[in-house]
Amino acid sequence: MEAAARTRVVAAGVILAAAIPLGVVAAAGSGGGEEPADTGMRVERSTEMPEMLIYLDDDEVNNPERTGGRRTVRVECLDTDGLVVASQAESWPMTETDAGTLSPHAHVPVNPARIADVESCRVVGTKPLLEAEVS
Known about the structure:
Radius of gyration: 24 Å
Mean pLDDT: 81
Number of domains: 2
Distance between the termini: 62 Å
Strand content: 25-35%
Largest sheet: 4 strands, antiparallel
Oligomer: single chain
Number of helices: 1
Number of strands: 7
Helix content: 10-25%
Low-confidence stretches: 11-36
Order of helices and strands: HEEEEEEE
């Protein structure tokens, strides 16, 4: 009888030892499965320069009412800790600066050593706040 009890205890220990890490991995890996809401803004790393490109794809977000009539905003790009990696003042509403070929956008220079750290950007001074993750 002692051998059977010992076998049950060892089996329970093995199951518990496997279940705890699997539970942690499952909890950490589940981001809810939700896509971020489409804000009318997208952020990309430039393939030609050490800069972030912030595009406003929706005319509804790129209007004077979004800033209460203010003519400038501050574009900030953040790392995974929420710290500002790069920022610059930008006129508002944004305009298209590449011969009419793209949506209104801003070019935000970033230190080449930190460009890979950029996770998201936001346009400070807009209500509601415009922000998007790097795509």
